[in-house]
Amino acid sequence: MKKEWQEQLEDGTRIVRTCGWSPPGDHPAGCGMKLHIKDGKLVKVEGDPEHPISQGRLCVRCLSLPDYVYHPDRITHPMKRVGKHGENKWEQITWDEAWDIIVSKVKHYQKNYGNESIVVFGGTGREACLYYYPLGFSSLQTPNVCYPLSGWSCYGPRCAITDYILGAGYPEIDFAGNFPDRYDNPNYKLPKYIMLWGKMPLASNPDGFYGHSLIDMMKRGTKIILIDPRMNWMATRAEHWCQLRPGTDTALALGLLNVIINENLYDHEFVEQWCYGFDELKERVQEYPVDKVAEITGVSAEKITEVARVFATAKPSAIQWGLAVDENPNGVQLGHAILSIVAITGNLDVPGGLLLGPRAALMGKWRVETRGQMPEELWEKRIGAKEWPALANALATTHPDETLDTLETGKPYELKMGWFNSTQPITATNTAAPQRWHKALQKLEFNVVQDLFMTPTAQAFGDIFLPLPTFAEHDGVVLTHFGRNSIFLGAMNKAFTVGECKSDIEVCIELGRRLYPEHWPWKTAEEFFTDQLKPELGISFDDLRHEGLYQPPREYYKYKTGKLREDGEPGFSTVTGLVELKSTLFEQWGDDPLPYYKEPPYSPVSTPELAKEYPLILTTGARKFTSFHSEHRQIEALRDIDPDPMMEINPDTAEKLGIREGDWVMIENQFGKAREKAHLQNGMRPDVVHATHGWWFPERDKGEEAEEPNLYGVWDANINTLIPHKHIGKLGFGAPFKSILCKVYKAEDQSSTKCKPKQMKYQD
Amino acid sequence: MSRNGLLIDYEYCTGCHSCEVACRNEKNIPREKWGIKLTEVGPWQVEGDKWEWNYIACPTELCDLCGDRVARGEKPACALHCLGQCMEVGPIEELVEKMEAKGKKMALFVP
Hints:
heterodimer, A: 7-stranded mixed sheet, 28 strands, globular, B: alpha+beta
């Protein structure tokens, strides 16, 4: 990339290069773009063709960034509530006033109820993911940082499984991301097959993997095997598509292992040298012959056999595992089985295979160390840590489901104050049973919310609202995979200012300097980032700005060179030093050491009586190009493309139910219900519907519509109300967001959800 | 010099809508009009495991193939931002050669 990160055009336009994150946008994909600033205002966003990964490509979310930045509803000054929780009564205040109120409240709760009475809630994917931990552990000194999604069902389980089975950072397919010359690098090999397992990266750019890299690779010859119950575009481009019954993934994985092992298609050398427990695994998979697996999953025995043969014999190949691994109470076993397939076929950490992250996360040292600032007896009060060691060992948060129990029961202690950073626990995004969370969170006396718009969560609970800037309005660093297997680290450059917003790290610093100044020596974000970058990479933040981005070198075969272990010995950083096909730790924590299949808690097989009333299987969570979970609902250009929450249903099933294209339907089960619009989709399984998540209606903000109990229509299309609390796996991970029973019928209320969109400020 | 056209390799159009929004931004096109618009065919089953599902973006009267951008040596707004990198503007003869070379799922527009 060019050294100049800013340029001035003759007409006075200033162009600032940057790499994006959210808010608003995406996981840390770090797409390269050029922000055009005129008279101090963002007027246009262009993709940056020099960026080695995104290469100028840009999705509709960043293309409509000016609409987000200057939206009339955006909150750009601190506010305090002047009414009751749930009333839309707020008053603008200064930052000093906000800090005075917050600091006195924090001290009050710490003194009277203990530091642990304060809980920090964080959300999915935004930049805040790096900072809400130190916000809790260091700035507030509470052991209770909570990611509230039942069973921690997003990314955390996959990281934990990898920790325990491989002793490595997050495994990602090799898309030549670390090489400046990308796919042409002589050390790179193109994967022959990529098995996409419960994952659709094109719209989601999961964890910073640039989704359309799949298209790059397909153009070069990579073939796709898709494991997905839902019809999607990739299914029509895949060479093989296993359209399984939702939630039966682990049976399918065990069936593939059965074929690979019994047909002697595995890599003997790798298994003998680097794997532990192969004989036991071999014995276990005998319980999963393909005919039995076909019966469970609905995928034919012939297809299972063919896919297993094709994958095992084409090298290099890789499996890209998705959220379907996390959002499944049987998901630990699924992840274990998937990693086992990749391992025994000899595809771990090889060029074009599944790459392992190094042990320590890039720029992760400080974040981990902030945990040590608290006295041990305070750290031991972390909610759910003792009850769920498999979760607590891998993740620094509370156990999400236990946190709801604690809120509801006051046991082992009462929670008094909440801090919500970039999360919407009551919108259908970041919790199961949001109706229960809603009630439980009302018990908190005082809450701080960091966001950019008034949300249902902020309206219901917030007392102080602290405005966040977009990624274009502050300095920062974006690193793919949150540092756990980073392809690159990019500079986010402050290009202009709107109001008085403060970034996540700025808030951590300012609060930290007021409460625990000994831990917060930095005065500015730039100082902070330079201090993080220097020891690891030897560069300052300003250097990174000029470089644009930094791609750490890629090392293959790290298990051979000692790069996966702290002691520098060859092998994996697990209890046995090997890939644990049989897990020492799972057994220690009371679970089966080998992968096994368990039916979803509610399914036509496990609850046949219930299935008579609720005959369809609901799966949720597939992403659209036009939103990042509950973000972007107020953006006109994006709502024009996707105006409504949609439910996909097979046309024959719809006909039997008297449902036509575009009808509003109720999706309902014994736990909750949601109203969405029906889309008749060929190729959907007749027994499955898929419903979109993250819906609320920011345009419903007149009078009572914005207030309790309406809260911008947050309960109308709230698909997570159908997902029950604490139906999690034995080790505390996974919840049935992608396999629950439901019924569907035409809604009485056929009125559209959408009101007239608002005009942008800069066009006024 | 011959006329330019817009070549779309719709095997790899993933329906991301970036062309629509990028074009609207570039040309200041109001909401009720379009410079380019995505169309959709499918999904429906051809036979067995074979499915037809194509997105094809159609340029309109308002598309001038980003003549000014191309003259500056830049890609047209749609082609630059296209996530599938399946759009290209160039002399028609060259694009026809590319169509023939690939041999399937290609569309050439002369708006």
